[in-house]
Specification:
This protein has 150 residues and is α+β, with helices and mostly antiparallel strands. The chain has two domains: 52 residues, no CATH class; 81 residues, no CATH class. It is built from three helices and seven strands. A four-stranded antiparallel sheet has the order 5-4-7-6. A hairpin with an 8-residue loop joins strand 6 and strand 7. The longest helix has 23 residues. The model has no long low-confidence stretch (mean pLDDT 78).
Length: 150
């Protein structure tokens, strides 16, 4: 009787250990843009709601041949009796095509650039005079796209 029971017990134990190993097998999937490892038994559920097998692949938008990257650096200062005005602009394109360069209202110019699709990347402020007189400025750095012919 023992001769028959021993092979059956060994067979049963090896089957249990194989199931435990396969249950611990993880599959790499891309879940909502993040790479995660899930049990093999959960893969089909993830696939059913749009996840993909393997590592996430970042896709870049196709470049638009009709536009180019553009940078605008703009300084605004308070001008007595006139409010806060744009006093200097440096741009990688013909800035006048978006906004006149003459001293104009800083808030309006900034709003026009944001409406044109530029992203505000940096704002800094300080004292523009070495003698520490009250002469404050604010610098803006914006990045966006403009038509190639600008």
């Amino acid at each position: 009787m023992y001769k028959i029971m021993l092979p059956i017990i060994l067979l049963a134990l090896s089957s249990v250990s194989l199931n435990a190993v396969s249950a611990n097998t993880k599959q790499e999937i891309c879940h909502k843009g993040d790479e995660i490892s899930v049990a093999q038994s959960a893969v089909s559920a993830h696939m059913n709601h749009g996840d993909t097998l393997g590592a996430c692949v970042e896709t870049s938008p196709e470049p638009d041949p009709d536009t180019m990257a553009a940078v605008v650096m703009m300084r605004c200062e308070a001008i007595a009796g006139q409010g806060v005005k744009v006093v200097s602009v440096s741009a990688s394109f013909d800035f006048a095509s978006i906004q006149p360069v003459e001293p104009v209202d800083c808030a309006v110019t900034l709003a026009n650039l944001l409406d044109a699709g530029f992203n505000l990347r940096s704002v800094t402020s300080g004292n523009a005079e070495a003698d520490n007189s009250l002469h404050l400025y604010t610098d803006y750095l914006l990045i966006g796209k403009v038509p190639v012919d600008s």
